[in-house]
Write a structure and sequence with these properties.
three-stranded antiparallel β-sheet; two-stranded antiparallel sheet; mainly alpha; 6 helices
Length: 206
């Protein structure tokens, strides 16, 4: 698994993180596109093989990563079977964008994500979207410097909203916004996109 496929946040790169939601999304899209290309060059056998592999991945995705406790997709499942769920909007958004989550389940997930944002008091999107909506515990954070979001408290609360531990960012906001539009939630998407566009226009991200 190369670096592009790893979870964006600064999470521990240990043996216990072998199955990650981020890595499977581009893999699924690649298989679908490879099937389409195989059809173009009349390689029907290859196309069918790619389609079958994509279908197997899609069938396994929700059961592997859906967190029944929160009703959203977790960031990853560790080798011990434990789900690590920090309410990542972009992780859930990418799953919808790539077609790994059906519309019904996707809408239910985004109902919960948007409600969680409101509960956290995050309603101004001019600086983007938080990468995670709850604190990342120290055992799941790779950089042990507090200025980069590492926490000395067990619950991660003293590192929350610092750097990639819950701070607002435009990075990967696309997935959340595009997922909302794909689900037909235009007003929800506009409510996030337009303040961000204004910030780009004024140079706020520079």
């Amino acid at each position: 698994m190369n670096d592009f496929l790893l979870v964006r946040l600064q999470l521990r790169q240990g043996k216990n993180q072998l199955i990650q939601t981020r890595s499977h999304k581009p893999t699924y899209q690649a298989l679908e596109e490879m099937a389409a290309m195989a059809l173009l060059v009349k390689q029907d056998g290859d196309a069918e093989r790619y389609r079958q592999r994509a279908a197997r991945l899609k069938d396994a995705y929700l059961p592997a990563f859906f967190d029944s406790k929160t009703g959203i997709l977790a960031g990853w499942r560790s080798e011990d079977g434990m789900l690590h769920d920090y309410w990542f909007p972009w992780v859930n958004g990418a799953a919808v964008v790539y077609g790994l989550v059906p519309a019904k389940e996707g809408n239910a997930i985004f109902d919960r994500l948007l409600k969680k944002m409101q509960e956290a008091g995050y309603t101004n999107f001019e600086h983007g979207i938080p990468g995670n909506l709850i604190p990342i515990r120290p055992e799941d954070y790779v950089d042990h410097r507090h200025r980069f979001g590492y926490s000395l408290k067990r619950d991660g609360s003293d590192g929350f909203q610092i750097y990639e531990n819950g701070s607002a960012t435009a990075a990967f906001a696309y997935y959340t916004i595009a997922a909302l539009y794909k689900l037909g939630r235009v007003q929800d998407g506009d409510r996030i996109l337009f303040p961000m566009l204004q910030s780009y226009n004024t140079g706020a991200y520079e």
